[in-house]
Design goal:
It is a single chain. By secondary structure, the chain is an all-alpha fold. The chain has one domain: MFS general substrate transporter like domains (Growth Hormone, Chain: A). It contains 19 helices and no strands. The longest helix is centred in the first third of the chain and has 33 residues.
Length: 418
């Protein structure tokens, strides 16, 4: 099939947009706690609302793609995300924030399911692995940029125009954003991006996609049967724990640095989240290289063990150590999703598409774990709450010992190469 580079570029931008909308919660949580005067537990409902939608819609989105095809699902996804962002932009309140995040999360789940098969077809199957890595780089770049944009908008809109920086973007946002809630400007930008993507998806012509067996969601009866399989359940828990770890650190780091070390959430806190995602992206690249030379279970043990050490330094180290230790957790967390996911698929003889859908539902860990951290944090302090991440990281670490894949990752022998 002829490669369509325009569609590949579009898909890369979709990955960028997904990440931009998904990974902004960390910088937002401290200011939402302050501006809406909510507890840590209530703030934990924000990632819960987003990721519960993300997890719950994984399998239904796969079924929708099979029935209605990628283009219709992607248009609907951006439409739902636009409505979610727009409603909060117009009515900024905590209950509306929860509804908004649920709607945006639903849209992002639909997009995640639709774009991977599309990338395989548009870019050519022989280039799928390379294009997937490029997509992850686009994802990581957006994760790095969005906290920086948050910081820029909030600082410059706070006392606009006396803050010193003036331009047309800030001037327009100043007219529509409440003066006491400058961070709502992000949702206006989300709204514009989402509606622009709807318009773009309507006019662009996408190639036809014939789903491979491992891309199909599987019948409901197949999913029900697989949910009784101990191996599937264990790897679902593994991905639940990974996403819980990732979002637990990303969502609570800024607040932790503010509470225990006095760092400004609009500056150092936002930078820490930005570096967390940036290092996670860099770690993905290193992980790809290591997996060519080392068994994936060994890589998982090394990286998850190092993540536990980094988390400890972040929780108990002095201010400057803590400021960098949390982002470094992101570096070591980088390989966990791909390794645990591949070990899970490689541990099953059949129904890989259905297994993939179930494993992707482990994304709900990003909903549950930050909420648990917030609840514990209200009871005994945020440091105590974030210590819950030891449990989730510990389970991921254990997978390196008990996983028994039917197929191991192929490695290069340096001796034979020489």
């Amino acid at each position: 099939m002829k490669k369509n580079y325009l569609v590949v570029a579009l898909i890369m931008f979709v990955f960028f947009v997904i990440s931009f909308l998904t990974n902004i919660l960390g910088p937002l949580i401290p200011v939402i706690i302050t501006d809406f005067k909510v507890s840590l537990t209530m703030a934990g409902l924000l990632p819960f609302a987003f990721f519960i939608a993300y997890g719950v819609f994984s399998i239904p989105s796969g079924l929708a793609v099979e029935k209605y095809k990628e283009k219709k699902v992607m248009i609907a996804a951006f439409g739902i995300a636009f409505l979610g962002a727009a409603i909060f932009s117009l009515i900024p309140s905590f209950p509306i924030a929860l509804l908004s995040l649920f709607m945006i999360g639903s849209g992002m789940a639909m997009l995640q399911v639709a774009i991977n098969p599309l990338l395989r077809v548009a870019g050519g199957e022989e280039h799928f692995a390379f294009n997937s890595v490029m997509a992850q780089l686009a994802f990581g770049l957006a994760s790095f940029i969005s906290p920086q944009l948050f910081s820029y908008l909030v600082i410059n809109l706070k006392d606009y125009p006396s803050a010193g920086v003036t331009n047309s973007l800030l001037s327009i946002l100043h007219q529509v954003v409440p003066a006491d809630l400058p961070w709502v400007s992000l949702y206006w930008i989300f709204s514009v991006i989402a509606v622009a993507m709807v318009a773009l998806m309507i006019v662009v012509k996408l190639p036809g996609v014939e789903l491979k067996d491992d891309e199909k969601a599987g019948a409901l009866s197949t999913n029900a049967e697989l949910l009784k399989d101990k191996t599937v359940i264990l790897f679902f828990i593994g991905l639940f724990c990974y996403v819980g770890t990732e979002q637990g650190v990303a969502n609570w780091t800024s607040k932790f640095l503010s509470v225990y070390h006095g760092f400004d959430p609009l500056k150092e806190g936002a930078d820490a989240i930005s570096y967390f995602w940036g290092l996670l992206t860099i770690g993905c690249i290193l992980g790809l290289v290591l997996l060519k030379f080392m068994d994936s279970k060994l890589v998982l043990k090394l990286f998850s063990g190092a993540a536990i050490i980094s988390l400890t330094a972040g929780l108990f180290g002095p201010a400057q150590v803590s400021l960098w230790a949390f982002p470094i957790v992101g570096f070591f967390a980088s390989v966990m999703w791909s390794i645990v996911f591949s070990l899970g698929l490689n541990s099953m003889k059949s129904h890989h598409g259905a297994v993939s859908g179930i494993l992707c539902s482990g994304i709900i860990g990003g909903a549950v774990v930050p909420l648990i951290i917030g609840a514990i944090g209200d009871a005994i302090g945020l440091r105590g709450g974030m210590m819950f991440i030891y449990i989730t990281l510990g389970f991921v670490f254990s997978i390196g010992f008990w996983a028994k894949p039917l197929i191991n990752n192929k490695t290069v022998s340096l001796t034979k190469t020489a």
